[in-house]
Amino acid sequence: MERDTDRYRSLTRRALMLGGMQAGLLSTLVARMYYLQVLESDRYTVLADENRINMRLLAPSRGQVLDRFGVPLAVNQQNFRVVMVSEQARKIDRMLTLISEIVPLTEADWRRITREIQRKRAFVPVTVKENLTWDQVTMIEVNAPDLPGVSIEVGELRSYPYEAATAHFLGYVGAVSESELNGDPVLALPGFRIGKSGMEKFHDASLRGVAGTSQLEVNAVGRVIRELSRQEGQPGRDITLTIDIGLQQYAQDRLKEEKSAAAVVMDVHTGGIYSMASNPSYDPNLFTTGINAETWEDLLSDPTTPLTNKVVAGQYAPGSTFKMLVALAALDSGIVGPRHTVFCPGHMDLGDHRFHCWKKGGHGTLDLVGALKHSCDTFFYDLARRIGIDRIHDMAKKFGMGQRTQLDLPSERPGLMPSREWKQANLGKSWTQGESLIAAIGQGYVLATPLQLAVMLSRLVNGGFAVKPHLTKQIERGPAEQTAWPSLGVNKGHLDLVLQGMNAVMNQPGGTAYKMRIAEAGFEMGGKTGTSQVRRITMAERSTGVLKNEQLPWRQRDHALFVGFAPLHAPRYACAVIVEHGGGGSAVAAPIARDILLEVQRRDSARGVPQVSSAVPAEPAQPAPPPGLGDKPGRIGG
Amino acid sequence: MNGDFLGHQPELSLGEKLWQINWKLILLLTAIASVGWAMLYSAANGNVDPWASRQAVRFGAGICVMVVVGLIDLRLWIRLSYPIYAVALVLLIAVEIVGEIGMGAQRWIDLGIIQIQPSEIMKIAIVLALARYFHAASLEEVGRPTFLIVPLLMVLAPVGLVMKQPDLGTALMVMMVGGAIFFLVGVRLWKFAVIIAGGAASIPVAWQFLHDYQKNRVLIFLNPENDPLGAGYHITQSKIALGSGGVAGKGYMMGSQSHLNFLPEKQTDFIFTMLAEELGMIGGTGLLLLYSLLIAYGVIIALRCRNQFGRLVGLGVSTNLFLYVFINIAMVMGLIPVVGIPLPLISYGGTAMLTVLFGFGLVMSVYIHRDVRITRRTVAGEL
């Protein structure tokens, strides 16, 4: 027993030591727990949240685009798409076959889906097909029990109810391209679309809205467990345009009679664009749903350029519509008085060169109003010879030629208003007087967009105020439309004289557009025709007789132009029309402008829109009954 | 006590033994197992299926085994010690052979109804075998190095086999339980120092014999941030879950990391992480306290036993439990490399639970038979 007592003592001692060691080791566990759960707790809490919380962006609803009366032009349509979760669908091919009985799937769809399924994780839904019809949606829902893992999702798709009529100024939205990614995470959302052209592009930032966020709890493999919180984004703001969609549709339809044409109507006081039509057009909805390569190729290769908005991007020699500016420049220079007359024998000689008037036999003696009325070229050759290109250039610039009008629309082109400096800088040659003469009839280097012509006309008829065009009426409760524009500093009397000329063009027998006048009382218009040569007429051709437009291939025919305003005595609407290769301005472009100007006046009188604005200068509004005015230039004050 | 300290050996009737059943022990074990059920219920997102219910059934069966083991006379256990050890060793070798056939790590023997893990049996068998070996040894005998050769081989044979499986955790445990008993019987401390020094010196050699994934585990343990999504993932996620639990925890069944599957094997080896995430440091230390009570109680029972065999068994089983708890929790906290050791009575799984309950059955037997004297003759076969 003595032996056992020693052993027992030793064992007890050792057991206590072992127990002490164990207690020590267990204490390190507690210490470690204290370190992790108290000292480092904050750090691990952050790590844990990062681990399990996944922020997802919620694409904001894109703002609508409305016309001036609130009619929606660009809206969001519910877009139903069928999606499939591959891990639930299991037999993918069989499932796709079942789906394709309801929603036809192309070979390409099939390949894309298979590719996406392989690339994505098994619980991530793959879009099988977008833009389902309601019938297809219900068919899928009804057959849901046979289609495990297949479901319908609702997204938003931009839709343009007026299709081609609004394509050129609204533009369209499309998927974000690689180069457009700027780090804004919302752009990287699958299916997110941004404005690619037109107002959609110009106002993209406002229309886009602010993305919301959704905090999702995800597990270690990224599967969504539930939504923790959701912060709704702000839907994009609505944009109200100055466009009157009724007028727009009318104008677009009217232009369809021509192969390629453009027309613009603007308010001469506010600069608001009521209508901007360019024909041919395209359906912007094709772009949002995904245009096929063939259609795209057709649009690109079409010689009538359906993708170009000719109102802002078409540059044409303005032809005789430019003559008002030459007249103003001449009067303003003081070199030529308001009673200045010129004898037109059908041409004018300058050095060795003979400059022809459009009327072979000549117009005889004409004063300024008569020259505008008959669009006599010789008269304006004479003015140009007297005042030179610089004065014409300066006056044209005042009226907005040769520069962008700063319209709130991308892709506007500047046109061209040549000057001595311009020619020296760009062509390296000095200006010749002959070129001044050509420029005076709106040919040669001079190029203008239909919008510039409308702006020019607006400034002529609104009393010489530097109105600027715009398409955006307001962004929600934005500023009202501007009517107080700086004056161009042009003599009122000179302007009146030009207006009388434009009155005579339409409303006096013998005026170049007399046949196209508006006879309805109160709706009368004034205007100016223009025909611009596309090809150079050689001396040889002139000697054998100039070929008629009908004898030429389409692309060599003259452009028909017209600028007109209405009502005659209280101008409010300015309209510019171009018919590409349409022939004569009076025969082709003028009736279009007349129809459009009549339509806009009828629409507004039907709506009770006041016809007379206070900004209208008093003088032209005074009773000045044609035809007498133009006949007796002596009665007009200088 | 009803025994005569020097005189006649009292024999206990079955009724007396049943009266002696240690309810405090059963209560403590049930308390810990209840924590386990609660955590398994949480791990299954508020379902008793598939883990908590089965674990409860196993615990019930295990307690029955424990009581039966406890009622069996300690003198029978000392006689069965070597046979049990021999069977465990044979099974380990058998597993090794089957494992060769099965091309890879094999730890189980499938007996049809149950699968048994010989390495788990060995954790108890080594205690029994060493307790028997040292039962009659005097301090002088223990002091003789030659006397220690046999028990050393007893330890090293299974350790070698288990390491070959490879099951680093179990090998470590068998080795440490063996070491603990060597320590308890009074082997001189300098001898441990020599062995530890020798072991340290042989690390570079041993390194060569480690499997790549084992080397990886050690390397990743040394620098877990090296491979945050690969093999270091488990320990990183475990630390995040544990650390984010804080003092009071995220609430029962509210452990986001565990429930969102960031935590691997949350119902088995990493169950303590989930507990600490949901119940915080308070819950974690609470559980450690329960374990400490159980271990301490085992030690107390052992030290009150009047025979060396019973004392060594009691201390061995308690040390065993301690090693389970310490290795598992130290592992999930990133204090030691990841080794596959479950948290006893809490981790889902039957074998470890059975091992522990069998072990505490022996402790109960030690308690019931604390006054039994074991002579050479009783060891030889006469009760």
How large, in whole angstroms, is the Cα Rg of chain B?
21 Å
Biggest protein-protein contact in the assembly: A-B, 42 and 47 residues
Helix content of chain A: 25-40%
Number of helices of chain B: 17
By DSSP (H or I, 4+ residues per run), the number of helices of chain A equals 24
Tell me, what's the shape of chain A?
elongated
How would you describe the overall organization of this protein?
The complex is a heterodimer of chains A (638) and B (383). In chain A, the strands form six sheets. In chain A, strands 2, 3, 4, 5, 10 and 17 form a six-stranded mixed beta sheet that branches. In chain A, a hairpin with a 5-residue loop joins strand 8 (212-218) and strand 9 (224-231). Helices cover 39% and strands 18% of the residues of chain A. Chain B has 383 residues and is mostly helical. Chain B has 17 helices and two strands. In chain B, helix 7 packs antiparallel against helix 8. Chain B is globular and about 60 Å long. Chain B starts with 13 loop residues before the first helix and ends with a helix. Chain A binds chain B through residues 3-4, 6-8, 10-12, 14-15, 17-19, 22-23, 25-26, 28-30, 32-34, 36-38, 40-41, 43-45, 47-49, 51-52, 217-221, 225, and chain B through 138-139, 180, 183-186, 237, 239-247, 256-257, 260-262, 276, 280-281, 284-285, 288, 291-292, 295-296, 299, 302-303, 308, 311-312, 315, 319, 322, 325-326, 329-330, 333, 335.
